[in-house]
Design brief:
Hypothetical protein af1432; exonuclease (chains A, B, C, D, E, F); HD/PDEase_dom (chains A, B, C, D, E, F); 7 strands; YhaM_exoribonuc/phosphodiest (chains A, B, C, D, E, F); 2 domains; 5-stranded mixed beta barrel; two-stranded antiparallel sheet; alpha+beta; HD_domain (chains A, B, C, D, E, F); homohexamer; OB fold (Dihydrolipoamide Acetyltransferase, E2P); nuclease (chains A, B, C, D, E, F)
Chain lengths: ~325, ~325, ~325, ~325, ~325, ~325
């Protein structure tokens, strides 16, 4: 597969010979008892699944999810959805591509660009307590912040999604601060940058993302709260000063409702605004995901991330 | 009452002699059978209630809610809340102030300023169908749009609140359009300006605002939809063209959920954004209302507009 | 297929050669990669699905959903449900049956009979405003009213179901008017006839019924409200007279609860009665549908239209 | 009070001297420590409350709720609601009226009339099992069935309300049976007559109605079910015959939803119909109650029985 | 299959020749039209499903669910779940095992042991009314109480589960009585023993358990209430004595909430305690079921009985 | 007031001269404009409110909530509820009683007794990680644990209620561990002792208890989680070891449902058991509170702590 030709570019019945990222592989058995492989691969352009109808006992065992593999396959269509029929799938050998990052969907910004914008934002956090905590934690989880996705699936589920989502909210926050008097911009920016940082513990990483055990048992909201408390300790900040209590509240409350996992409802204006901007950014991203798979003038499939709505894509802009 | 001295400026036990707007007046009977007056008056600075302990049979009948009255009273305090004890209350006579508008709370912008900003916004609605409908209806309800409140109570319940709330959303919409690609700015602006216009039929007017009968039986969401349909007819626009259907949908869906009175959920990206910006602006206003009555470092009273939350006002900015 | 022998009459293993209505056809691929056809056909007696295991590239393309087709097949049983195994399926040729209406399930009344009963009912609407609106709209959508189904699936999902359902409610309404004093019979009848008329815009038509774009984005409740407003305009009726406001309210409120899509709850007695009669008639129809597929002395399958209840059919009448 | 002059007939400031039914009496203390009586009395026309401002220690003790008393009072108005100011209240003496029934609101039908209609209905229950059970229980609770109210407050809260409500549903049931084929009229009539009969155990009686202990701890739905089971035992009917199981189900399910106190949801068509007719009749009665206290062209007070709706009474009939 | 070797003991690819209990058998058709058998069998160690790929017309008809069958099969694995591929399945012949009870999962206690513990408990019910009712009903349903499961599936779905679950709650009840003063131990024990006894009517029996018609239409809560009422009649106990009303209440309320099928909420302390102990015991059993199928250090499958939670099994004890 | 005579001992009309704890005091104004004091006082036996009808400007200012005061008053009854009419209320002087603790309701156990039982329990926590964390935190908050209430109002709202409630759950836990195999007793005991310890930060203290700012903005569930994290840091325990993650989970999940403020649902068996024992103990206490104010054979007032149920107190034990 040449650099320029991506999975999305192949037509039905066209042959594909090249390298892709292995996302999932299972050995299954047909009704008549024959084993086959169910495979999902991806590159930057899309994710696609399919079958390899004959397989040997050890074929799947030799392949590792999250690594680059070489494939030979043909592009097909099944119930309006693209699929592959695989002829061959094997690990790459010496000299062949082997960097998974080259085959991962990425967000609209490079880590470098995000980092620069975040650095500039830090200067707008004029409250010294909040600035120290944000700097401390962004330093501690620097790499993860710019490479983790913001979710296992749904909105911002791409490498770098966590940083990009946080940055998008910070941008919206700046617009709100400019438009409305009496919004505490330092508090809003500090919490925008930290609110989802617990995901670097909740999720396993950018490739083949799953929930970790602390992720499932504690959840990213409390996980970041704990990190803030430890940072305060490290920085000799008074845990029960108003600044510290308020920052923890804004972040704990960012899911907006108890039933969505926040242990407290937003009781401070900036907590409420953060929650609403988080939802706004996540929804826009979810709509864009759904629209990408919908034809103009039609309704898309029911979207789990949009509360099972089947959204409409207008014909004319 | 001199121009400069407002109701909010009087201290406890201080005498008040001046002109105010009459908001409510009832004749009641004490436990021991004596009639008295329960009165609410207001000026630009605040609304305040109190009693006039002796009254005659016809005193209340001579006074009209929504008009300017002359009062003589003393400022008191009851359970932490300010009240008045009235000695005299009478209609104004020739030569005395009589323009209710001079005593009404108003929003942060003058009608004139809002009008100019709206006029500028209209040019950003590049889709001709939407622009024609918006111009037609803003023209038809021009005066009401800039003088009606956006609610009977709660957020934006001041004269001009409707225009100001619509404008605030339009400003947020512009920030969103700038930040996110592929948002239809024309659609978002057009619907931001029209979404609450049904309130000019739902509410009785800027003074002593109540719900009208069509307001209660039909509601502002369907009332504006009907006006859009009549406008389309007047303008010879095809009611079932995608432009018309989409505009009606975005406005019908702006309460976001069926249980909040929208007959359809947002199925178009811009419908979802409008709903979220509407909620964001309304919530900020509700927080500001609650914060205005809360001391720094304390929790306020439970706020109906904020889902019974008792909000916190941080000490330090 | 002779006139007298319907799909429901065939036994397992019996061969069928005849004409049916094509409801759905899809080309699919077996696990081993071979294409086949998944087909649904129907006549007045039932709807039935099945496979044609060998097919050619263009076979499906030559057939059109909603038209009469000739089939050769055998009746089978799969997991207690009837199915067909198709040997042949082709368009009809000259001289063969080709009227879809001859193969469509129909309600218990003919359009002609319904029309006569409706005409008689119109005279019972003594209020001139309501009578003019009802006459205007039943005239405008005359054909659709008596041929559309009342739903895509569920209750009254047969051709003519819309008219029949409306008529059934009108009959119940007459019983209620007779039994209870002080019920406004004109209002109840007028709204019974109009309440679901928006479905002639919400649904695509009697054959292969789907939701239209305005159906999904606006919904039948608001669609008929808009038509009433336009009719009032046409008839020079005052849109904000009590008669017009009340009629719109009763129809807007007929789903009874906001969460079921009514933008207002019933605030007028007749609105509440209409809602309850609508539900009563729909439920009886849904029970009859479920009972038709249930053996006496047994519980049926879970019924979506009955809130997932699995209903019981008593043995003895 | 002459026979012809009822409480509803007195004007504001008019004196009342006559006999009424005592509904409630409490000794209370004013803010300044003086005891007074809070009294509610009624006759057939209305219920009315008020105060007697001076009282002695034993005055209230000498009066008994549920008995006829002699009063001297004046009719007043307080916050738009009628009230009485009592001058004297005393037990009646020999020769004065003393039959509470003469002062109780009653339904639109006399017990005698209801009884005749019920007797006629019994012949329409053709299933012998159901007929025997209904006859047995209506015989056992004959007097209560025609004199108890159907509720402590809300709909049908008048003496005889139980019988009248049951009869109203039976009438609706007959209309439904006539209109829809395949409805089991015997089952529907039998259960219409029995469905609320548990209220003769749940409630204390027609005067000063309260909930009994079994009423609160078991509830009328299970109380009637138990009576049916005991009746079946007495009549040597097989408790687990389909007839008996079905009858118990229809009655147990008549509140329609678990959260409204039915231990099972309606799984039989007639159970569903009974539930809907029960709701329809109760709602019409609740609307009529609310409308009786609402002026034409206005909205009434929020009605608890109507889920807090504030209903509208149209001007013109 | 030797006594010692149970289904759970076989490895993947190992052959099984022996006797098992037949739980379910269906004839199905492959996509290519060939009939096959879908079979579920069980012994004390586990339940397992699989296919027999060739079958004759009458093979399934000769086999009876709930009986012992002889099988020849091989153990396989499909999507991480164990399955069987059957070569042969036939009824047992003379001299071969034929007692289903030998192949049924059973609880941790034998019927005999449970019976002895229950007998001892009866002496702790010092209130004579309650003791007589409990003795009467446990006598009447003696065998079923110790052999029925407590559910069709979910918690305590093994033979003897009903008695064991009741006993477990009675044990918890004793701990509570010991720890808290003023808990009525007689009432709590009596109702613990009776609370689920209606399941002997609601369920079909210990083998191939299904819901009976009275089970579905009346439910076990009302079914046991009816039996208590009949017992009281038989024992000449006053149905409306406080003892009888209280006992019926405690049992009717044991699901704790109306939406879970109790017609009344717990209004007596012991009713509330019974409800909570019932839930505690059921939840512990459901967790144990889920933990049995989960690897240490991992999350299990979503459990319907635990409200769709995916539970975690810690590594170290 | 002699030591032996408590507030509960006084009869109606009896004079009281003695010392009590001042719980609340407000200056209010009668309808006729005269100021008066609304006062609540308490001793170990009960809390009681009342008025002092004449007061001076500074009288209330001289009195401090939470301190002992001298009163002269008379016991009265108002609407079935006891009240006081105060003649005098003043601060105590030198030599008079002044220890608030002598006038506070206390739980059934002394701090000393609770401490001994807790110390014995600690040895049953065999897991060293959990034991060290529990010892560390009980040491750090030693005094508060045995003197704080478990709530501002509702269940266990007495001094020492926190320790007593925790101990009660630990006792129930021991019964459960004894009855059920495979319950981790160490985990259950450790979390029973810690689960509500966050209340020592959430609440202001044993006297005149209110919520603190961190209490309202963070809540006791997250507050104790943070303390556990800091303790782990102090004790050099690995924050992400299974032991630490599991302990935090069990405590975070102890409210059982997200909507009750737990940020995660119980996913570990012991978490579920802790939640259910917490609810059981709290409910028994709430029932006992309600029963203490209810007459035998009657229903009590609606209890907020019991979800607005009006509970029944049986006559006979």
């Amino acid at each position: 597969m040449s650099d320029s030709k991506q999975l999305r570019d192949y037509q039905v019945d066209e042959n594909i010979n090249g390298f892709v990222l292995l996302k999932q592989i299972d050995t299954r058995v047909t009704n008549s008892g024959k084993p086959y492989l169910a495979i999902t691969v991806a590159d930057r352009s899309m994710e696609i699944s399919g079958m390899k109808w004959d397989t040997t006992e050890n074929e799947a065992a030799a392949l590792k999810v999250g690594e680059v593999v070489a494939i030979s396959a043909v592009r097909q269509e099944y119930r309006d959805k693209p699929q592959l029929k695989f002829f061959e799938i094997r690990p790459t050998t010496l000299g062949e591509p082997n960097n998974p990052a080259d085959y991962m969907a990425s967000g609209p910004m490079k880590a470098k660009e995000m980092e620069e914008e975040v650095n500039a934002l830090l200067f707008q956090i004029v409250n010294p307590t909040w600035q120290r905590v944000v700097r401390f934690l962004l330093n501690q989880y620097h790499e993860q912040f710019f490479t983790y996705p913001a979710a296992k699936s749904n909105h911002h589920a791409f490498a770098g999604g966590l940083g990009f989502h946080s940055l998008s909210i910070a941008r919206l926050a700046q617009s709100v601060v400019k438009q409305y008097p009496n919004v505490d911009g330092s508090l809003l920016l500090a919490s925008a940058l930290l609110h989802d940082l617990g995901k670097v513990i909740e999720l396993s990483g950018p490739i083949a993302t799953t929930y970790t055990i602390p992720g499932n048992l504690i959840g990213h909201i409390v996980l970041i709260d704990e990190q803030i408390v430890l940072a305060a300790q490290e920085l000799n900040l008074d845990l029960f000063s108003e600044d510290m209590v308020v920052l923890r509240h804004v972040i704990l409350a960012h899911h907006g409702q108890l039933e969505y996992g926040s242990p407290v409802r937003p009781l401070i204006k900036e907590a409420n605004i953060l929650h609403q901007l988080d939802e706004l950014d996540a929804n826009i991203q979810s709509f864009d995901n759904a629209l990408a798979e919908t034809n103009p003038g039609e309704f898309g499939a029911k979207s789990w991330a949009l509360d099972n709505r089947s959204i409409y894509k207008p014909t004319e802009k």
